[in-house]
Amino acid sequence: MISTSDFRNGTMFEMDGQLLSVVNVEHIKLARAGAVIKAKLRNVMTGSIFEHSFRSGDKYKTVRIDKKEATYLYADGSHHYFMDTQTYDQVAVDEEMVESVLPFLKEGSPAYLLRHEDRLIGVELPITVELRVVDTDPGFKGDTVSGATKPARLETGAKIQVPLFIQPGDLIRVDTRTGTYMERA
User: Fold this and answer.
1) In terms of Cα–Cα distance, which of 27, 31, 30 is closest to 39?
2) Which residue(s) pair with 132 in the sheet?
3) What is the number of other CB atoms lying within 10 angstroms of the CB of residue 132?
4) Model-level pTM greater than 0.90?
5) Could you report the per-residue pLDDT of 138-168, keeping only the tens digit for each?
6) In what side-by-side order are the strands of the sheet with 128-136?
7) The pLDDT of residue 72 is above 90
8) What is the pLDDT of residues 4-22, one digit of tens each?
9) Among candidates 44, 76, 82, 91, which has minimal Cα distance to 63?
10) What is the predicted pLDDT for the residue at 42?
């Protein structure tokens, strides 16, 4: 069982027979009454997102999510194919399940297949991935005082903000949770 006061982004639990994931959570302290937890939830099976308020201390059933290591192989129309690294089985995943990780997914990259009760519910990437910068404007010395960024297009087609010293062809590390530049690789 998990208490609502322990909710964090990414927490998965079961409520009313539905598998839910916390997208965003906010703790609100009221003057005389107890605290209220407002959460934005995503139904893992349907993908729908909704908001719900909880009383502090309510308890819900935790769910077991199995993570299996896999390698991304290729895309074929509306399906993306992954290879289980232990059994070498190919797993076809619908486009909707990989939509959130698609900007940082390239052939041959590692991923995790998420399963709940032997049913595939999604794909997760490692926290950081290394991608090559394909296109970006040149940065000039003395442009700004500090912390300036410019847009860059990566080899997967994703567009992120990078520091001015990054040039086309550089290999960079990207945080897959936030989609932000971390460092040069």
Assistant:
1) 27
2) 171
3) 14
4) no
5) 866 655 556 788 899 999 999 999 998 889 9
6) 159-163, 149-154, 128-136, 171-175, 180-184
7) yes
8) 888 888 788 999 888 898 8
9) 44
10) 85
Burial of 91 (0-12, 13-18, 19+ CB in 10 A): middle
Type of residue at 116: H
Q: Is 9 in contact with 23 (CB distance < 8 Å)?
A: yes
Instruction: Say if 2-62 and 66-124 have the same CATH topology.
Output: no
* CA–CA dist 97, 8 (Å, integer): 22
Protein fold of 128-184: OB fold (Dihydrolipoamide Acetyltransferase, E2P) (2.40.50)
What's phi and psi for 8, nearest 5 deg? Answer: -135, 165
Residues in the chain: 185
Sole residue written with tokens 């990989």: 98
The CA distance from 180 to 170, in Å, is: 15
Strands 90-94 and 79-84: antiparallel
Q: What whole-number distance in Å separates Cα of residue 106 and Cα of residue 72?
A: 7
Q: CA–CA separation, 95 vs 36, rounded Å? A: 36
What six digits make up the tokens of 60?
Answer: 């819900």
Give 2-62's CATH code, choosing from 3.40.50.10490, 3.40.50.150, 3.40.50.720, 2.30.30.30. Answer: 2.30.30.30
